[in-house]
Amino acid sequence: xxxxxxxxxxxxxxxxxxxxxxxxxxxxxxxxxxxxxxxxxxxxxxxxxxxxxxxxxxxxxxxxxxxxxxxxxxxxxxxxxxxxxxxxxxxxxxxxxxxxxxxxxxxxxxxxxxxxxxxx
Amino acid sequence: xxxxxxxxxxxxxxxxxxxxxxxxxxxxxxxxxxxxxxxxxxxxxxxxxxxxxxxxxxxxxxxxxxxxxxxxxxxxxxxxxxxxxxxxxxxxxxxxxxxxxxxxxxxxxxxxxx
Lengths: 120, 114
Description:
Chain A is mainly beta. Chain A is 0% helix and 46% strand. In chain B, strands 2, 4, 5, 9, 10 and 11 form a 6-stranded mixed beta sheet that branches. Chain B has a 5-stranded antiparallel beta sheet with strand order 1-3-8-7-6, with no helix packed on it.
């Protein structure tokens, strides 16, 4: 039973389109994240989110927006896709057993298998 | 801001040889440090984490890492490499607040020669 699942696994679309990537975790975690991995394998945090607070990496364009319908889901919406958005996007989640929100740093993050986004 | 530096974008070892992947951190406060592995076309899997309980941390698949404050290092080792260890390895750090997310090194691609 997959802990963090993302759909779709592959997404090929044209420049200018709007698309969404879905993420679900069944671990009961309170905090979820989105990361971007570029063509050189470099990973960078985009967002972290719990039911009270959204933290946005200041380098992320406002065309990207996370949406959380409930604690187990954090979807990523991308408007007006650009060539530079081509990358692999990873969702992750973590939990602080002490109940601190957002999760404090000593708890590992669990990652999904990624969504490979290709812009034509 | 916290950061980690991984020395060597590619490391090649023979099967059965020692694996050593280097990671140095920059932090003015005790960091939380992690090693993750990424197999081709897969997500990241946690190998081990340092949270100040012990300086020598044992992880999965025979890997371990030693936290050395004097050297600001957290190098990953494995006594005997297997072909299945071929993957991308990432060192990562997080500050006291998990909401900032992990800061990753640039990764080291481990190649295992038969």
